Amino acid sequence: MAARVFIDGEAGTTGLQIRQRLAGRSDLSLVSLDGRRRKDVASRVEALNSADVVILCLPDAAAREAVSLITSPKVRVIDASTAHRVAAGWTYGFPELAPEQRAAIASSRRVTNPGCWPTGFLALVRPLIGAGVLPRDLRLTVHGVSGYTGGGKSMIAEFEAPASASSTSTAFRSYAVNLEHKHVPEMTIHAGLESPPLFCPAVARFPQGMLVEVPIHMSALSGGPSLRDLHAILTRAYQRDRFISVMDLVQSAARTAIEAEAMAGRSDMELYVFGSDRLGQARLVAALDNLGKGASGAAVQNLNLMLGLEEGEGL
Prior knowledge:
Elements: E1 3-8, H1 13-22, E2 28-31, H2 35-38, H3 41-50, E3 53-56, H4 60-69, E4 76-79, E5 91-92, H5 101-107, E6 110-112, H6 116-130, E7 141-147, H7 152-160, E8 172-174, H8 184-191, E9 198-200, E10 202-204, E11 210-217, H9 227-237, E12 244-246, H10 249-254, E13 269-276, E14 281-288, H11 292-306
Parallel strand pairs: 1-2, 1-3, 3-4, 4-6, 5-6, 7-9, 7-10, 12-13
Antiparallel strand pairs: 7-11, 8-10, 11-14, 13-14
Helix pairs in contact: 1-11, 5-11, 6-8, 6-9
């Protein structure tokens, strides 16, 4: 029998992309509410409690409320919001985070999707910390640029408004300049760092895609590693993963640039090790789609694991 899946918030950007990835699958049955019934509490409660898996694509407060409305012990939840990413009782839905993470997701009743920025950050630093090369007390900086769809409906409306309207003409802007971005706690906790990274995000005038970069002075690392050593650690960490690829070190060294939109429309991620052994500097870069591996693609990957299906189905 096909598993019943209810996307609460299917009309939003992430919800729409999840639904597109699930469309046409015979192993799933999508529960859907029309526009009027989406706002009817009784209809939502019925849908939330009749599904095998509920995927929440809601603002944080609404996601917490939705969870409180689920009374059936049989219902499993994937939350795409920030509400539960460091909450007790929730499994962090980044399958590649650690060797045991897939099994934890598969057996969990409550899974929280990672944020798009933490997905790139953790993919780059977690293996280095695990290998003992990157000290847990090192004070890291992470920066990069994301497509404007990462900012939700309000930012999408701002960037896509007609030129005659009061839309922004900005090509690129930094944000979260008060250093209080909601992604920082999950970056810190799930990386195993002792202090939060200095997070400097930016958004630009393109819809999908992103680059997440962690610059490192090699002298701050343990054991005097080379760029080749860092590349080898990342390669070993993801050698069996189909949704994270570590790009060839020689080919990366030959590049003169990397495009933020390179992974738009995809559900995987590419990692790069740039830098100079002579200068003792490294630039670790993750390229992904903020709505793909950074959101909807990750949700579908987690859904497949929770239902015991092939991990890449629909991706």
